[in-house]
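Hello support,

Our group uses your service weekly, and this is the first time we've seen a run hang past the timeout. The protein is Co-chaperone GroES. I'm not sure whether the cause is the sequence or the server load. Input pasted verbatim:
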Amino acid sequence: EVKRDNETYLVLNEEDILAVIE
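Update from on-call engineer: The timeout came from a worker crash unrelated to the input. Re-ran successfully.
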């Protein structure tokens, strides 16, 4: 299930990046 956790982390990281851009 490591891949699934990794994908979740990437999604959260993407949201963080978008928040910083705004």
